Elongation factor Ts (candidate division TA06 bacterium), 198 residues
Amino acid sequence: MKIDAEKIKQLRKSTGAGFLDCKKALEENNGDVEKAAEFLRKKGIANAVKKMSREANQGIIEAYIHPGAQLGVMVEINCETDFVARTAEFKELAHEIAMHIAIADPKYVKSEDIPEDVLKKEKEIYAEQMKNSGKPANVIDKIVEGKINKFYKEVCLLEQQYARDNSITIHDLIKSFIAKLGENITVRRFARFKIGEE
Protein backbone atom coordinates (compact mmCIF):
# COMPACT_ATOMS: atom_id res chain seq x y z
CA MET A 1 0.00 0.00 0.00
CA LYS A 2 1.37 3.41 -1.00
CA ILE A 3 1.22 5.91 1.85
CA ASP A 4 0.53 9.56 1.09
CA ALA A 5 3.46 11.79 2.18
CA GLU A 6 0.98 14.33 3.59
CA LYS A 7 -0.40 11.70 5.99
CA ILE A 8 3.13 10.84 7.14
CA LYS A 9 3.82 14.55 7.73
CA GLN A 10 0.55 14.91 9.67
CA LEU A 11 1.32 11.85 11.84
CA ARG A 12 4.89 13.02 12.51
CA LYS A 13 3.58 16.42 13.62
CA SER A 14 0.99 14.95 15.99
CA THR A 15 3.19 12.22 17.52
CA GLY A 16 6.77 13.43 17.19
CA ALA A 17 7.73 9.96 15.88
CA GLY A 18 10.32 9.40 13.15
CA PHE A 19 9.54 9.21 9.41
CA LEU A 20 9.99 5.43 9.09
CA ASP A 21 7.98 4.71 12.26
CA CYS A 22 5.12 6.87 10.93
CA LYS A 23 5.24 5.19 7.51
CA LYS A 24 5.18 1.71 9.10
CA ALA A 25 2.33 2.68 11.49
CA LEU A 26 0.25 3.97 8.56
CA GLU A 27 0.95 0.80 6.55
CA GLU A 28 -0.07 -1.37 9.52
CA ASN A 29 -3.32 0.61 9.90
CA ASN A 30 -4.38 0.96 6.22
CA GLY A 31 -3.51 4.66 6.06
CA ASP A 32 -5.79 5.62 9.00
CA VAL A 33 -3.96 8.49 10.75
CA GLU A 34 -5.86 8.18 14.05
CA LYS A 35 -5.31 4.41 14.32
CA ALA A 36 -1.65 4.88 13.33
CA ALA A 37 -1.22 7.50 16.08
CA GLU A 38 -2.74 5.09 18.61
CA PHE A 39 -0.48 2.29 17.31
CA LEU A 40 2.60 4.52 17.74
CA ARG A 41 1.47 5.60 21.18
CA LYS A 42 1.09 1.99 22.33
CA LYS A 43 4.45 1.07 20.84
CA GLY A 44 6.11 4.21 22.22
CA ILE A 45 4.66 3.84 25.68
CA ALA A 46 5.86 0.22 25.81
CA ASN A 47 9.35 1.41 24.89
CA ALA A 48 9.07 4.33 27.33
CA VAL A 49 8.46 1.95 30.24
CA LYS A 50 11.79 0.22 29.46
CA LYS A 51 13.58 3.58 29.33
CA MET A 52 12.23 4.67 32.73
CA SER A 53 14.87 2.61 34.55
CA ARG A 54 17.80 4.46 32.93
CA GLU A 55 19.85 7.17 34.72
CA ALA A 56 18.73 10.76 34.14
CA ASN A 57 21.51 13.15 35.24
CA GLN A 58 21.10 16.01 32.75
CA GLY A 59 18.19 18.43 32.47
CA ILE A 60 16.97 21.94 33.14
CA ILE A 61 15.43 24.06 35.84
CA GLU A 62 12.25 25.73 34.64
CA ALA A 63 10.75 28.79 36.33
CA TYR A 64 7.14 29.83 35.89
CA ILE A 65 5.60 33.03 37.24
CA HIS A 66 1.80 33.11 37.16
CA PRO A 67 0.24 36.32 35.74
CA GLY A 68 0.03 38.91 38.51
CA ALA A 69 3.40 37.83 39.96
CA GLN A 70 1.82 36.49 43.16
CA LEU A 71 2.65 32.84 42.48
CA GLY A 72 5.80 31.20 41.12
CA VAL A 73 7.26 27.73 40.59
CA MET A 74 10.74 26.33 40.03
CA VAL A 75 11.07 22.72 38.92
CA GLU A 76 14.06 20.51 38.08
CA ILE A 77 13.36 18.10 35.22
CA ASN A 78 16.05 15.53 34.36
CA CYS A 79 16.83 13.54 31.22
CA GLU A 80 19.76 11.43 30.05
CA THR A 81 21.65 13.84 27.77
CA ASP A 82 22.20 17.59 27.49
CA PHE A 83 21.24 17.24 23.80
CA VAL A 84 17.65 16.33 24.77
CA ALA A 85 17.66 18.91 27.60
CA ARG A 86 18.16 21.65 25.00
CA THR A 87 15.28 20.55 22.73
CA ALA A 88 12.11 22.61 22.40
CA GLU A 89 9.98 19.55 23.32
CA PHE A 90 11.82 18.99 26.60
CA LYS A 91 11.52 22.70 27.49
CA GLU A 92 7.81 22.55 26.61
CA LEU A 93 7.33 19.60 29.01
CA ALA A 94 9.21 21.43 31.80
CA HIS A 95 7.02 24.51 31.25
CA GLU A 96 3.80 22.44 31.28
CA ILE A 97 4.82 20.73 34.53
CA ALA A 98 5.78 24.05 36.18
CA MET A 99 2.43 25.54 35.16
CA HIS A 100 0.60 22.46 36.45
CA ILE A 101 2.39 22.76 39.82
CA ALA A 102 1.27 26.40 40.06
CA ILE A 103 -2.36 25.38 39.45
CA ALA A 104 -2.62 22.04 41.29
CA ASP A 105 -0.33 22.73 44.28
CA PRO A 106 1.16 19.24 44.83
CA LYS A 107 3.21 18.70 48.00
CA TYR A 108 5.47 15.84 46.85
CA VAL A 109 6.83 14.50 43.55
CA LYS A 110 5.77 10.87 44.19
CA SER A 111 4.13 8.80 46.93
CA GLU A 112 7.50 7.44 48.12
CA ASP A 113 8.46 11.04 49.06
CA ILE A 114 5.68 11.37 51.66
CA PRO A 115 7.23 11.16 55.15
CA GLU A 116 6.14 8.09 57.13
CA ASP A 117 4.73 10.22 59.98
CA VAL A 118 2.50 12.19 57.55
CA LEU A 119 1.17 8.95 56.06
CA LYS A 120 0.60 7.43 59.50
CA LYS A 121 -1.32 10.54 60.62
CA GLU A 122 -3.56 10.41 57.51
CA LYS A 123 -4.33 6.73 58.12
CA GLU A 124 -5.19 7.49 61.78
CA ILE A 125 -7.54 10.30 60.74
CA TYR A 126 -9.34 8.09 58.18
CA ALA A 127 -9.56 5.17 60.66
CA GLU A 128 -10.97 7.52 63.33
CA GLN A 129 -13.59 8.83 60.87
CA MET A 130 -14.72 5.23 60.23
CA LYS A 131 -14.57 4.04 63.87
CA ASN A 132 -18.23 4.59 64.67
CA SER A 133 -19.52 3.49 61.26
CA GLY A 134 -20.36 -0.03 62.53
CA LYS A 135 -18.51 -1.59 59.59
CA PRO A 136 -16.26 -4.66 60.12
CA ALA A 137 -12.50 -4.04 60.55
CA ASN A 138 -11.57 -5.55 57.17
CA VAL A 139 -14.04 -3.23 55.40
CA ILE A 140 -12.70 -0.22 57.32
CA ASP A 141 -9.14 -1.21 56.24
CA LYS A 142 -10.23 -1.26 52.59
CA ILE A 143 -11.95 2.13 52.93
CA VAL A 144 -8.84 3.61 54.59
CA GLU A 145 -6.69 2.18 51.79
CA GLY A 146 -9.00 3.79 49.21
CA LYS A 147 -8.79 7.13 51.01
CA ILE A 148 -4.97 6.90 51.11
CA ASN A 149 -4.91 6.28 47.33
CA LYS A 150 -7.13 9.35 46.88
CA PHE A 151 -4.73 11.31 49.14
CA TYR A 152 -1.81 10.31 46.85
CA LYS A 153 -3.73 11.66 43.84
CA GLU A 154 -4.25 14.98 45.63
CA VAL A 155 -0.72 15.58 46.97
CA CYS A 156 1.69 13.72 44.62
CA LEU A 157 2.61 15.51 41.40
CA LEU A 158 3.04 12.33 39.33
CA GLU A 159 -0.38 10.97 40.37
CA GLN A 160 -2.32 14.19 39.82
CA GLN A 161 -4.58 14.60 36.81
CA TYR A 162 -2.87 16.86 34.27
CA ALA A 163 -4.41 20.34 34.55
CA ARG A 164 -4.82 20.71 30.77
CA ASP A 165 -6.20 17.21 30.16
CA ASN A 166 -7.69 15.38 33.15
CA SER A 167 -7.92 12.11 31.17
CA ILE A 168 -4.18 11.61 31.87
CA THR A 169 -1.90 11.98 34.88
CA ILE A 170 1.39 13.90 35.00
CA HIS A 171 3.09 10.47 34.99
CA ASP A 172 1.30 9.65 31.69
CA LEU A 173 2.30 13.03 30.25
CA ILE A 174 5.97 12.36 31.09
CA LYS A 175 5.72 8.84 29.60
CA SER A 176 4.45 10.32 26.32
CA PHE A 177 7.49 12.62 26.18
CA ILE A 178 9.81 9.69 27.00
CA ALA A 179 8.33 7.91 23.98
CA LYS A 180 8.72 11.03 21.83
CA LEU A 181 12.27 11.96 22.90
CA GLY A 182 13.68 8.45 23.43
CA GLU A 183 15.17 9.13 26.87
CA ASN A 184 14.17 8.64 30.48
CA ILE A 185 12.70 11.81 32.00
CA THR A 186 12.17 12.43 35.71
CA VAL A 187 11.01 15.26 37.94
CA ARG A 188 13.65 15.60 40.65
CA ARG A 189 12.20 18.39 42.81
CA PHE A 190 10.12 21.54 42.77
CA ALA A 191 9.35 24.58 44.89
CA ARG A 192 6.13 26.60 44.78
CA PHE A 193 6.02 30.14 46.15
CA LYS A 194 2.86 32.12 46.85
CA ILE A 195 2.83 35.62 48.33
CA GLY A 196 1.93 35.48 52.02
CA GLU A 197 2.33 31.69 52.39
CA GLU A 198 5.00 29.95 54.46
Summary: The first strand starts at residue 58 and ends at 65.
